[in-house]
Amino acid sequence: MAEKPKETKVEKPKSAVPQEGIAAFLNPEEMHKLSRIVLLSRYVVEGNLAGAHRSPLKGASSEFADHKAYGVGDDPKHIDWKVLSRTDRYFVKRYEDETNLRVYIILDRSNSMGYGSGDTRKYDFACRLAAALGYVVVKARDSVGMFVYSDKIDIEVEPRNSFNHLHNMLKRLQKLEPASTTNTAETLHQIAANVHKRALIVVISDLLDNEKEINLALAHFRKKLHDVIVFHVLDPLEIDFSFKKGFEFEDMETGELITCDPRSLSKDYQKIFGEFLEQYRTTCEGMKVDYRLVRTDQTVESYVRAYLEERRRLSK
Amino acid sequence: MISFLNPFFLWFGLSLLIPLALHMIQSSRTVRLQFSTIRFIKLAEKRSSRRIKMENFILWVLRTLLMALLTLAFMMPMIRTKEFGNMLGRAARDVAIVIDASYSMDYKAGRRTTWDEAIETAAAIIEGLSDKDRFCVYLAREQPMPIYEQLTGEREAGAARVKALKLGVGSSQLCPAVMAANTALEQETRRVEREIHIISDNQALPWAQFKREGTTPDAATNAPALAVTASNAPTSAPDALWDPSKINDRTTCFVTLLGATAPENVSPVNMELEPKLITAETPCRLTVRLSRTGPPQETAVTVYVDEKEVVRRSVLAGEGTSTEIQFMIPPVGPGSHAVRIATPDDSLPVDNTFHFLIRAKQKLPTLCAGTKESTLFLRAALGAGINGVSPFDIKFIQPDQLQGEAFQAYVCVFLCNAIPLPGQDLGRLEQYVKGGGVLVIFPGDGAAPSDYGAWSCMPAQPSALFDVPQDKRKRVLNWAKPSHPMLVSLKEGGAPPSLAIKRLLKCEKREDRTETLITTGENDPFLLERPFGRGAVLQFTVAADRSWSDFPLSPFYLPVMHQLVQYSAGAGTFTPFLWTTESLPLQEYLPEATKDSIIRDPDANPVSIRTAMMDGQVSLHVEGLTKPGIYTLQDPQDVEPHPALAMNMTRAESDLVPVKAEDVPAILGIKNLQMAASREELLRKIEDFRIGKTLGEQMLWLALLIAIVESFYSNWLRRKKPKLTDSLVMDPSGKLAGK
Fold this sequence. Notes:
The complex is a heterodimer. Chain A contains 9 helices and 10 strands. By secondary structure, chain A is an alpha/beta fold. In chain A, the strands form 3 sheets. Chain A has a 6-stranded mixed beta sheet, sandwiched between helices. In chain A, a hairpin with a 3-residue loop joins β4 and β5. Chain A is elongated, with a radius of gyration of 23 Å. Chain B folds into 5 domains: 2-80 and 694-704, no CATH class; 84-262 and 656-691, von Willebrand factor, type A domain (Rossmann fold, 3-Layer(aba) Sandwich); 271-361, Immunoglobulin-like (Sandwich); 387-570, Rossmann fold (3-Layer(aba) Sandwich); 578-642, no CATH class. Chain B contains 15 helices and 40 strands. In chain B, the strands form 10 sheets. Chain B has a 9-stranded mixed beta sheet, with helices on both faces. In chain B, β7 (134-140) and β8 form a beta hairpin. In chain B, α4 packs antiparallel against α5 (155-163) and α8 packs across α10. Chain B starts with a strand and ends in a 12-residue tail after the last helix. Residues 84-89 and 213-229 of chain B have low confidence and may be disordered. β8 of chain A pairs parallel with β2 (32-35) of chain B.
């Protein structure tokens, strides 16, 4: 049996009636705490609506961008009369556009995400993390969409900025359980190919797949100028392998079995796993991907708050 | 060779499989646990498989070794020292037991004596033998005393007989007894397992004869050498040189030293009376020598005469040395008086009393045989005394009247020109001398040199009568042995006496032990002395009258004659004490006793007087004088018995200087030697020796050691190792710091 790590239990909403949607993942108190913070993109994003995020397009903000030769259809009120007086040519002034943020949450629901040494599985933690981020995004009037995948894309939800949309999206997520094997790299490539406008890509996964392929997929996102955040969700026992006795371990995705005494293996295991984490960290750092290691023995709300505070501080 | 006391526990050897089984069970436990991926586990296992295998192997070896040791310990492995006996089954053994029977074994430690412990130990050895075993028992005394001289298998009777043994009052030497015991063992050649058990106290004395060339063990040098003398002092047996090579290599010697390690004892060991000649109403001086073992201690010495305390003194008896203490004995009446010297009770009470006799005479009876002319000057000399009263009771007879005389009544017999004598008189005179009398012979013209040939007691056989030339008659007397008791008071004062000697008896062929006391002229003997039996024969080379010399006219004649009688009275005629003995010739020590006399021991039980023929003559021997104390003599005509003999046990054993147990192996020089300090230890060692030595305890200690090592090693393997989480530098937002 898996031993219970010392962890803070995630408090689920207490209600006699089964909760649905966002209420199934966040209680009012958590939502209240999360409502005061926003998720900012570090890069320029392309949105449909006016918003608080910088857009590659020129718009109606007060921030001057450049001049453009007057053409048919341009609003005469934007003609720069001072330039006309000096040069006898008609130029119109253009201003920076500000748009809303489009966030795509890509959630891994492969079988390996179903592991949890305590009460919380990685998948549960990942869902709550996705809900919290979605709530923060919608609260800031930004759009949030979602991809849930295993060996293929299981759910695809286009981004919108309404709570109803978030609610419906989470209701769909609530119905899913970890299943099948994983094919993270291929799936990420597909998603990268489908998302055309610059957006904020949030990957929530345990990344237990071919790391080189996954890194290539992440690079695909960066190539298309997306802002990428990777939440590497891991159980504490996966990191430390600190079992107190021997087991016959069964791979949750392949069903492969191995019998060993973790007490004698833990040193080498930790060394290998450390190299595995370090490889992701260095690669992501090189691609300017925001790589974060998330342990399931912490609370989602406090983690999200800590992360967003950190991100807001770095965005200034 | 190793065998097992509990081979049943061999089944416990299956426990050797327990560690392996546990390992296998642990390895094959099918508690399945779903894990996100086993990819990293496989990689880790590939890396550390060799190390894990080695660790598991070491743990398996330690645990198997632990179980093996526990199995062996419970099987009680025994190292048997007798391989052949084990191969042939239980070998029968011959056992010789030598028990020290000296009176020092009577030393009390608590309520029990060392002797009690010794005989119980010997009985336990016998009772511990098996059916086919045989044994013999020897007591170590002055001479070995066999209890079972030949090997016997009667264990019950043997143990009972040993328990009934009584302690003697003599000394002991272990060496002859051990050699005798070994001889008894050697007579049986078929047996292969032999044991010699020596049971003694801690005293060094019994080990004195274990002297070997090239070894000077402390025990031998420490052996007490109390110079106690008595006329029947046992002649020390010639050193039976101990030869360890005579002890078979297959013979194992067990030495059990049961006595106290720091004994204390005070004992009177000797006495001396001064003067030796005691006449009635004359005080005398008694010198008592004390022996002390242990630290110096104040002790009281009491002297009883006829069981009445006459004097008591305290003295500080020094450690390891003999202390002399002197008493003045008040005058006693004529007759024989029993005197007892006593010291306070201690742990060895048997030697606290010393007995001797004072025999006081009214006058010294002297017999002179010779013609009136020949004894004229002697009569005048011995008749003189203080205030005209002579201390001598002199009787003069003709030579032919000797037949009716009882010589034993006289302290001295003079023969003045009385030779030749009939053979019967000659024999009686010689017997008188053997019994302690002193015979003084003056030659005369009545005897030719050949007439002396029948005398076997003569100091020197005369060869010729020598008429001294006129010019050489003037001669000076020289004291050849001025320290002689007879001459010691004559040597002082004045010039050497000179005589005119006309005729001299030439005595060139001297007998053994003959001493020349006085010489004249050119070393011609003048007075010769020969100890004979317990008495002595003194021979002058001039006549007692003035026919041969003017010696009777010289001023030295009278003192010399007086000294002769007094010397005779003090030398040999009476022995104040004797050592206890099994047999004593009466003619020598108690001449007045006849075959009809009754001699009683200190408990008033009569002792037997045996008649024996020796050299064609009837001799009487009294037997069984083994009890210390005063023996009385009662002749048929006597109404009351009178003290006749004072018997004391020899005092060598009173010196309890202990032998060092660690020195005994060097003293004996035997390869197979086991030492024990108590009966329990001896029996345990016998059991270990016969059965073997168990290694169970050692195995358990080793198992404990292995268990500790295993515990430390397994804990070291499972020590708390640092976690990867601790080494990862991660902030609350999940950002990892680079290495």
